[in-house]
Every structure is written in C-alpha cells, then in structure tokens.
Amino acid sequence: MKDIINIETISEVHQFLGKSKPKHPLISVYRIGDILKDLEVDNLRYSLGLYQISQKDNCPFTIVNYGRNSYDYQEGTMIFSSPNQVLEYKKFETNKEDKGWTLAFHPDLIRKSELGKKMDSFSFFSYASNEALHLSDEERKTVTEIVEKIEKEFSNNIDAHSQTLIISNLELLLNYCVRFYDRQFYTRTNLNQDIASQFEQLLKDYYKKEKQLEFGIPSVQYCGKAMNMSPKYLSDLLRKETGQSTQDHIHQYIIEKAKNRLLNSKESASEIAYALGFEYPQYFSKIFKKKTTMSPNEFRQSLN
Question: How does pLDDT run across 19-64, given as a tens digit for each residue?
Fold first, then answer.
C-alpha cells in the first residue's frame, strides 16, 4: 500500500506543491488540478491537518475518500474534507482545462471564533467524496466570488479587520453550501426517494436475522455502510425526508418493538432490553422514557 503523505500546515502544502511562501499562515487558495498535472504524481494518498473545500471543473484526478467509492469530478462540483481525513488522487488523462479552486485553512484560523464553535453543524465535511455537491452555473459563480473575496483579503496587507472579514466570508461560503445541499436534496428527490422505507427495511432485516444478539443495537455507522452512504449523509437525507435523524429512526424503531413485547409478553424490562440488543437495561429505560415520557414498567401498567 502506498505511504500516506502527512501535511499539517499551509506552508507544507505550498512547499509540497512547489508554490511560493503563502500570503497567510493559516489559509490559502490554490488551483490544485493544474499544479498536480504538472507534477509527476499518481496514486497520491495524503492526510491534511486542514479543512479543505474544493470546487473543480474537469479535474484530471479521481478522488477516493475513506477507501469508499471513487468520484470523477464533473463540471461544477464541490467536495469537503475535515482535518486528518485520508484522500487519494488517481491521475487520468484529459485535454480539458481545470478551472476550479481549492481553499484550505487550518483549524487555528477559526478556533476562537463563533464559526469554530459551529463547524460540526456543517455535516458535509464528513460526507464521502461520491456525495459531492453539484452546482448550477449561478451557484458556482456565487461560491467562487466569495472565495475570491477571501483570497483578496488575505493577500492584501493584513490589518485589524482582516481576521474578522476572512472568517465572516468563510462562514458565508459554508452557509451558501448548506443552502445548495438543501436544494440538491430537494431536486434529487427521485434519486433519493424512499430512503426512509429502505432504512426501515434494513432495521427489520437486522432484527429478523437477530444480529442485535451479537452486535447490539444497530449503530449509525453500520446503517450508513449498509446503505452505501457516509453516516452524516444518510442522517441528513433522512432528516430532509422525515424530519428525524438516523439515530432518531433507530431509537423509534426499537421503542415500537419494545412496546409490543411489553404488551404481549411477561418478560421483564431487563429481559426485553437484552433481547433488543442493549448492553445495559438502564440505557434502554432512559431511551424509552425519553420517547414515551414513561418508564417501560409504567407503560405496561398504563395499558393493563
């Protein structure tokens, strides 16, 4: 297996790409497709200690994320990666010019800001590369203009306002990406329809085969892998379709099964908890009460 190249700073990115010293130590914008095309590299595996946002047109590389599906950039697509994810570039021949860009920034840039506190809410940084954002021409223009403002700001003389303006424009960029992903979920309804039904069938099959007795209650990670999606992407799809996350669906399904057993058997709450895959009955009782406002025993008694 090819060694992973670890790159931790903006300066190391510039050094690896053969670029001049960065204008700002914590953020940079570069045209990585053209740079890598000139470098004799292939099957490049790397881990960045940075956030990376890429918008590509005709990129001469296939991107592989988390060892999952390959993704060939189409015109006007974006992918996002958070620090320490491993990505792989595989080179292929193309005569088309890559007109896209990559924006990379170190976590320290936003660590003390309000944006730093809400980065986890931008779940697309955990999507797999084949779950890219596909932009319309107008959307592509919008995000590119914001990136150009960011680039102009850190390329000019840094003053007391630079940090605030860079971070506010970065947050604006991410908020637009949230909007565009929402549009994509909506306009691709036919492609993603019945995700909730497919997911429910997955849970039914899991319990029908009694996998919970060996592996416990189904995890969000297991469900994502079983449906060939990253966990965050699956959860966001379900939330758009039903208003509930993957975890909410799992718990709701289990509670419905628990209700049936409470009403149709003489098993104790602890026995039902173990049968449903819970390692600790107390955790089962906690989830049950959260969903129904009653403990398992109170629920049983209320209907007797």
Answer: 889 999 999 998 865 555 555 555 677 788 999 999 986 555 555 5
Q: Which residues contact 243 (CB under 8 A, 6 or more apart)?
A: none
Domain count, the chain: 2
| Beta strand ranges found along 35-171 (DSSP E) | 44-48, 51-56, 61-65, 70-72, 77-81, 86-91, 101-105, 133-134
Taking only the tens place, the pLDDT of each residue in 59-110 is: 555 555 543 444 444 557 898 989 988 777 666 555 555 578 999 999 999 9
> pLDDT tens digits, residue range 198-242?
898 999 999 999 999 999 999 999 999 999 888 999 998 888 878
Here the tokens at position 174 are 């991410």
187, 216, 244 — which closes off a domain? 187
Where is the domain boundary, 187, 216, 235? 187
Same domain, 54 and 164: yes
Q: Are residues 10 and 132 in the same domain?
A: yes
- Provide the edge-to-edge strand list for the sheet that holds 133-134: 27-30, 101-105, 51-56, 77-81, 133-134
**What's the CA gap between 150 and 146, in Å, rounded?**
6
CATH code at 274? Answer: 1.10.10.60
Tell me phi and psi for residue 161, to 5 degrees.
-100, -10
pLDDT tens per residue across span 122-166: 999 988 767 889 999 999 999 999 999 999 999 988 888 999 999
Quote the tokens at residue 17: 């790409």
Same domain, 144 and 243: no
Q: Which domain, by its residues, includes 30?
A: 4-187
13 and 156 in a single domain? The answer is yes
